[in-house]
Structure formats: structure tokens, C-alpha cells
């Protein structure tokens, strides 16, 4: 007897875009469609760990450059999570 495996994997849909600045219409980056949602979520978690470390170091060392880096990384992590959520709804 053969057991049929579910080969359907939820993937990102590619709808999430990141804009920086007021009134801008050109996104700085967007999430590509077709990334397995589990992988996107794992990568978002890794990025958030980096965000946490950069934020703490930036505050403790009064380094605005690190704070801005954490800002952009957190936006990328959020975009990954948002697009993975869209993919999991399909």
C-alpha cells in the first residue's frame, strides 16, 4: 500500500513591498513569490535576532548607524513575515 504525501508547500505570494520615506512610490525592495513560507519565517526570525543585537549595541554605544541598520532589517523581516502570512492563507 502506498501512502500519498502532500507535496503542496505554501509559498510567498510576492505582494509585500517596502517603501522608505514619505510619499515615495518606488519600493526599495519586495519579497519574491515562491519562497517556501517556513523558510521565509525562519529567515525573518534570524533577521529579528540581528535587529535585537544591533539595536542594543546601537543604543549602548550611541551609534545611530546601527539603529538605522536595525530599522531596515526589521522592515525586511516584517515584509518576509507578512508575505509568508499571505502565502499561508492560500
Please give a handful of descriptors for the protein shown.
mainly alpha; two-stranded antiparallel sheet; single chain; 90 residues
Query: Largest beta sheet, briefly?
Result: 2 strands, antiparallel
Provide mean pLDDT, rounded.
90
Distance between the termini: 31 Å
**Count of helices?**
2
Oligomeric status of the shown chains?
single chain
Low-confidence stretches: 1-6
Helix % is 55-70%
Describe, in plain words, how this protein is organized in 3D.
The chain is mostly helical and 90 residues long. Helix content is 56%, strand content 4%. It contains two helices and two strands. It has a two-stranded antiparallel sheet with strand order 1-2. The two termini are 31 Å apart. This is DUF3077 domain-containing protein.
Map the helices and strands.
Elements: E1 17-18, E2 29-30, H1 37-60, H2 64-89
Antiparallel strand pairs: 1-2
Helix pairs in contact: 1-2
Q: Gist?
A:
With 90 residues, the chain is mostly helical. It is 56% helix and 4% strand.
Amino acid at each position: 500500500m502506498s501512502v500519498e504525501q502532500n507535496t503542496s508547500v505554501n509559498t510567498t505570494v510576492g505582494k509585500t513591498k517596502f517603501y522608505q520615506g514619505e510619499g515615495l512610490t518606488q519600493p526599495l525592495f519586495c519579497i519574491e513569490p515562491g519562497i517556501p513560507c517556513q523558510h521565509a519565517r525562519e529567515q525573518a526570525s534570524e533577521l529579528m535576532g540581528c535587529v535585537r543585537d544591533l539595536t542594543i549595541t546601537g543604543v549602548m554605544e550611541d551609534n545611530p548607524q546601527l539603529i538605522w541598520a536595525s530599522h531596515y532589517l526589521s522592515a525586511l523581516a516584517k515584509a518576509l513575515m507578512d508575505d509568508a502570512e499571505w502565502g499561508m492563507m492560500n
